[in-house]
Amino acid sequence: MLGIFGILLMTTLVQYGVTHMPVHRSAVISLIELVAGAVSQQLLTDEVVTVREWVGGSLIIFGAYLASRTTSKA
């Protein structure tokens, strides 16, 4: 029960926090979570990640970096 309650509480707090952030910042967080999940999958399982997937992950990180550097002047 503690685990289920903890996951529900964390999910609710993250969703609340993201609604009070600029859109480009919340998009960066989502992209970084995607890459963190892929890296943890690589470390915790015996699946082999190909060079193509590493290049794709690095492009995601680079895109998140560029998105965080831009400022909207609309």
Summarize the SSE layout with pairings.
Blueprint: H1 2-19, H2 23-44, H3 51-69
Helix pairs in contact: 2-3
Structural commentary:
This protein is mainly alpha-helical and 74 residues long. It has one domain (22-74). The protein is built from three helices and no strands. The chain has helices at residues 2-19, 23-44, 51-69. The longest helix has 22 residues, at 23-44. The termini are far apart. The mean pLDDT is 81.
C-alpha Rg (nearest Å): 16 Å
Percent of residues in beta strands? under 5%
Q: On the 0-100 scale, what is the average pLDDT? A: 81
Q: Given the structure, what is the number of helices? A: 3
Q: Unreliable stretches, pLDDT < 50, 5 or more residues?
A: none
**Structural class based on helices, strands and sheet pairing:** mainly alpha
Distance between the termini: 46 Å
Q: What's the helical proportion of residues?
A: over 70%
The biggest beta sheet reads: none
Number of beta strands: 0
From the spread of the alpha carbons, the general shape counts as flat
